[in-house]
Specification:
GO terms for molecular function: double-stranded DNA binding; RNA binding; zinc ion binding. Pfam families: C2H2-zf_KIN17 (PF25095), KN17_SH3 (PF18131), SH3_KIN17_C (PF25092), WH_KIN17 (PF10357). Associated with DNA polymerase alpha, RFC1 and cyclin A, in multiprotein DNA replication complexes. Also associates with replication origins at the G1/S phase boundary and throughout the S phase in vivo. Belongs to the KIN17 family. The longest helix has 37 residues, at 146-182. This protein has helices at 9-19, 38-45, 48-59, 61-84, 91-98, 115-125, 146-182, 218-229, 235-258, and strands at 27-28, 33-34, 88-90, 128-133, 136-141, 194-197, 202-205, 272-275, 288-295, 299-304, 310-314, 318-320, 328-331, 340-347, 352-357, 366-371, 375-377. Among the domains are: 62-141, DNA/RNA-binding protein Kin17, conserved domain (Arc Repressor Mutant, subunit A, Orthogonal Bundle), CATH 1.10.10; 269-321, SH3 type barrels, CATH 2.30.30.140; 323-378, SH3 type barrels. The strands form five sheets. Strands 11-10-9-8-12 form a five-stranded antiparallel beta sheet, with no helix packed on it. It is elongated and about 95 Å long. The protein is α+β, with helices and mostly antiparallel strands and 379 residues long.
Length: 379
């Protein structure tokens, strides 16, 4: 006979089974008891403790359901806030992490019948931002903590102040450049060039031979040297050129500072993309399309090139298209975001490319190391 008691194989197996999640239909929320099979659940429903709980619940069933709904909502939102913060995440991922706790409140005891219904309720009540995609429902927690709101307002105020300072400095620089270029006309200097015939001792001007020959001595060479030195630009002109180049550098630095923040979205109307998800079938997998419209930064209306069908897709189901060298592309992220460029070359080892900017103040600049996902072919 086998061992009896706590260390018997059957007892060990029962404890292992009890650790994991069991079927939801054999769970009693009122008693918070999980049964292992249908027979156990039936026996529990006939037990005296379960009958007492039913009598208590029958006095005010709406209050019991409201309590379970409130507890479920609080635990779910607390998980989003603690685990994901204000990131955009799929609702199924959050729910799967929530039910890992064996003591969680089950949804069948709340006022919501499905997870989709609960997700819509969160968006309606203003707890989260919700949006529907072909991949499913996505939620994003809205942090309404007064301290967080105060920090965000301070950051926005500082960012606005920096932009105002940049705009003022840019206007000042432009005004100085305009005054420097448009306030005066370039000076016109006349130079007379002389040719010398040392053998004959005569001099003639560039306009024609002189009427009278003049004997020249050694002082004539010094005079000619002084005339040639007039061709050298003055130090004020050289300083003006250096000053203009410094202004150009400042303007370029300001432009780069405005574009230095990377974003987590890259969709843009008018670019060519490729569908990478397999959920739409082989008809659209690895097929190219053109972005016609961008919705809420992360979703795009795409018109397929082959079939002409219009699809609403999330950016996680798409990827950029790298054209042949010499074609026009659009920079989608980074310092040069929203700038048109020409593709010069591709570095397959570093998964990057070299572009020549074709719009904006830095037009003509050659930029190296632009990653594949930061630019795409233009339609």
């Amino acid at each position: 006979m086998g061992k009896e008691g706590f260390l018997s194989p059957k007892a060990i197996g029962n404890r292992i089974k009890a650790k994991g999640l069991q079927k939801l239909r054999w769970y009693c929320q009122m008693c918070q008891k999980q049964c292992r099979d249908e027979n156990g659940f039936k026996c529990h429903c006939m037990s005296e403790s379960h009958q007492r709980q039913l009598l208590l619940a029958s006095e005010d069933p709406n209050k019991i359901m409201d309590n379970f709904s409130q507890e479920f909502k609080n635990d779910f939102i607390e998980l989003i806030k603690r685990r994901f913060g204000t990131k955009r995440v799929q609702n199924n991922i959050v729910y799967n992490e929530y039910i890992n706790d064996r003591e969680h409140v089950h949804m069948n005891s709340t006022q919501w019948e499905t997870l989709t219904e609960f997700t819509k309720w969160l968006g309606k009540e203003g707890f989260c931002k919700v949006d529907e995609t072909p991949k499913g429902w996505y939620i994003q927690y809205i942090d309404r903590d007064p301290e967080t709101i105060r920090r965000q307002e301070e950051l926005e105020r500082k960012k606005k102040q920096d932009l105002d300072d940049q705009e003022r400095s840019a206007k000042f620089i432009e005004e100085q450049v305009r005054r420097g270029q448009g306030g005066r006309e370039p000076e016109v200097r006349e130079y007379h060039y002389f040719t010398f015939n040392l053998a004959k001792g005569s001099c003639s001007s560039a306009d024609g031979p002189s009427k009278a020959s003049v004997a020249l001595g050694p002082s004539a060479l010094k005079a000619a040297g002084s005339v040639k030195r007039k061709d050298v630009p003055s130090t004020s002109e050289a300083k003006e050129k250096k000053k203009k180049s410094a202004l150009d550098e400042i303007m370029e630095m300001e432009e780069q500072k405005k574009r230095s923040v990377r974003a987590d979205h890259w969709l843009h109307p008018g670019i060519v993309i490729k569908v990478v998800t397999k959920r739409l079938g082989e008809k659209y997998h690895k097929k190219k399309g053109v972005v016609k419209e961008v919705l809420d930064k992360y979703t795009a209306v795409v018109k397929m090139i082959d079939s002409g069908d219009k699809l609403k897709l999330d950016q996680s189901h798409l990827e950029t298209v790298i054209p042949a060298p010499g074609k026009r592309v659009l920079v989608l992220n980074g310092v040069y975001r929203d700038t048109e460029a020409l593709l010069d070359s591709i570095d397959e080892r570093k998964f990057s490319a070299t572009l020549t900017l074709d719009s904006g103040r830095m037009k003509g600049r050659r930029v190296d190391g632009i990653a594949y996902e930061d630019f795409s072919k233009m339609a």
